[in-house]
Amino acid sequence: MDFSFLLTQMVSGLTLATLLFLVASGLTLIFGVGNVFNFAHGSFYMLGAYLGYQVVTVWSLNFWFALLFAALGAGVFGALIECLVLRRIYGRANEGGFQILLTYCLILIIDDLVKLVWGAEYKSISRPAGFSGSLTVGDIAIPSYNLLIIAIGLVVVVASWWILNRTRPGKIARAAAVDREMLGALGINVPLTMTVVFGIATALGGLTGALAAPLRTVTPGAGIEVIIDSMIVVVMGGMGNFWGAWLGALLLGEVNAFAVAFVPEWATLFSFLVMVVVLIFKPEGLFAPRTTRKV
Amino acid sequence: MGISDMKSLCNGNTLGWGALILAFALVPALMTSQYQLNVACNVLIWALFATSFNMLWGVTGMLSFGQALYYGVGGYAIGLTVTYLGSQWYFAAFAAGLLFTLVLSFLLGLLVIRVGGVYYTMLTLAFGQLAWQIMFKMYDFTGGDDGLQGITLPGLLADKVYYYYFVMILVLVAVWVLKRMAYSPFGLILRGVRQNPNRVRFLGRRVRRNQLRIYVVASLFATVAGALMAGVDGSVHTDMFFWTTSGEVILMSVLGGISHFFGPFCGAVVIILIEDIVGAHTEYWSLLIGSIIMVMVIGFPRGLVGGALDVAAKVRAILQGEKHDDTTLTAGLGK
């Protein structure tokens, strides 16, 4: 086993981790702030992938515009869904169950809508100009698109941290996570905050879908695959904990990348094994949640 | 004596069970095709699966996302045994499946009930998916993605109508047992575990031990449902282990109402029938089902059974309200 092989696997693991984290951070945001478990988050990811396909392959426009379009499209759709559907069940008895039920219905609906519009066949997107080759250092070749994903992921992490911790909207979002009623009493429009947070989180999902599309095929089932992995990430990190999700994604991404390299047959087992091991030794996740312990 | 006997016979409980048995017993007589019998079998089996699942969630407050594991064990116990050993081993396979679930759910239960809330849910999901992966990959033994076809049943059970009655009797007896359990002292402790585990501890009862018990019991009944399902189409499929199977019983339970014992049962009936009717008419059935269920969820906050009871209570209140007004009026006049 040589060094270049290890490095290549590590980079591919890091790419996977970045994509996972981008989806999981949206899931974490919705859970942390709104206390909603958005089971349909993967569907917004899939929607983003299809919107990206529409822009790049059908309209043959710029890839960067596709990213923007996918994020905006998924975000607006997510905000609409929160406003029209999810808002109606807040505060109901057994709310958690109804959340799962409603967002499960959303999976069914979005999956079929996508099939209706784009058909059930596999779609693909080519990589953007300038990122189709790979970067070679000595005898190590790393696909430059992977590096792009990692870079974008880093930008999103830093930007989210900055918004959440250093700006007024971020402060409002964190306050909503702690005490919604008090926030309302202070004159903040809480329902609007929820809608905006949901919109931003689903926009992150859409962006990730478009970003991942050149690496994977675009299929109607893509949402389901990604939601399970991101749920694992979120739970391993401790529900609603941003940095926990990051660490969880990193762990899962690297484990997956090396499992694919060494035991490709059983690679998919490993994500679950990792979670089982983590939860047995740290039942509350890697970082115990601070604000949302009531689950 | 006679009157009280009549009363106990005519109370809602007995009447309800009578109506239930009659309704399902008449299906083979009223059906117009073999297909409808299949649908009725599906309804019964899913109803049992959902009811057993709700013993965990609605009663004890443990939202498991991995009951498909035990459902699949039931299905594959029958499927593998009949395929490799022949249909004369059917009942032995049934027992073996139950035994396997007993051991497996006890061991996994020890592990998963250590963690609570969402973590319990995710851990059950993880074990379910692990089982699915293993069944999926062991192609030579389990048929992998193709599943196992051509499972034949022994003797009279090979006849569809007899098999339907076999399913019906087993399901109704199982549901009756679960109902007795839900309202027994054990069931009360389980409710206590959901509402306030600390009070249960103060009463000198062990929370984890009772959680483990109901986890094993619910898993055993899920295995019964899975084993029965293997005979309906004569085939089993790895989808039985997939997380969407666990998801489906959650849908049924929420739709029917998890705080009522028969909620999941009704939810299962409604969902299977909707799936059947919608599936026959359009390719985009999941879009329609999703929309229909979404409207139901928004319209019935307490589930279908809860909603129906609310309506019934309102009607009764209106009727009794009038009567009540009359009596106060006459009483006032009498004074």
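qc> Residues 3-34 of chain A form the longest helix (32 residues).
qc> done
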